[in-house]
Amino acid sequence: MNKIIPSLWFDTQCEEAMNFYVDTFNGAPYKKQESRIVSITRYEKGMDAPGAEAMEGKVITGIFELAGQRFMALDGGPVFQFNEAISLYVECEDQKEVDYFWSKLSAVPESEQCGWCKDRFGLSWQIIPKQLGELMSNTEPLKSKRVINAMLKMKKIIVADLQKAYEGGAS
To answer: Does pTM top 0.90 for this prediction?
Structure first.
């Protein structure tokens, strides 16, 4: 069980987001663990919280798991918005998995850079192939620098282009 559980604040689309994330991770090419909604508690008529009446039926707390990582989420209204100061990092097995997650999660093209994208709920993701770390950590500084320079020019990470830069080809 996770000791630290990220909590995600949505305006009013918490349940839609949880379902979307669970479906996305359950459809991943190399799914290792089931993703699921664990529980949902809703605002009900007569609750004593400020603004609760306007939120009737929305999510007070939703617990869900993505590939074994537990999250808590809620509908809290428009007071707080996601920003790039925090992102969720998805380590991908290969280009096929990068392409899959990118196609599902990237919804704001102007936010794309170096493997980062933003979904339709405003949450930032890093969709990173494990090969990036392997190629960047080479003991030959010139090879590592070429890989980093190639990555800095990318939106979605392309493993073949990283490998080409690593080997000394144009990036």
So the answer is: yes
